What does this fold into?
Amino acid sequence: MRDIFNFILHPSIQLLKEDNIRNKLIRFKNCILFSIASLFISSILIYLINFVINQFGIHPNIIDIHKKGRSLLNHYSFTQAWLLSAFIGPVLEELEFRLLLNPCRITIAISCSLFYWVHNGGSFKTETLLTANFLFLTIQSLFFASFLYYLITETVIEELKHYKYKLLVWGTILVFTFVHLKNFEPLTFPLLLLSPILLLYIFFTGWVLTYLRLRNGILWAIIFHILHNTSLNLIKGF
It folds into this structure.
């Protein structure tokens, strides 16, 4: 468990080929325990804040706003919502935010172009698939990936790997965290002020997923993310 805390101060990629499955499973278990503890702490803080602002009438119930904003059932069938939140979403987010943490031309190009695709309206809604907008955005993203692949030099990659790696790791964790502000609707100024606390658990989740990706590999991070979202769906629903 101590390695998870030390990692955030001194992040580095340590994918050891000789590392056995037992060590990887121990890290996986420690990540589960870390995630449970951070969920418990974050939930207490959010409920305390929610209680205070309700008592003083400062803002509507932030928990209800969060549930309303993140409900996939507003837009998808139950099956589609489950697949998106528990499988497709985790896979896409790991490729967006964690794949490039082993910097090379192909990983950076894939992560950045996928981020562009997702956050410019890319979706797997049945009614949007194979529409003109969907195809245009997908072609744009492929061109963007190709452009990045040929633009990025070995010098840039070496900079990211050695001199700016901590910045890359922290940057991806923070972007991953604040992207989840979209879970809150409507997004008001008081919510923005409270966002560091409201998004605390997302930050911890990004931290532990990044740790797992850099110690065990991207596949382990994807598996953890899928299990994490599935568990939250079972506990809280959509």
In short: Residues 21-55 form the longest helix (35 residues). Residues 20-236 form one domain. The chain is about 75% helix and 0% strand. The mean pLDDT is 84.
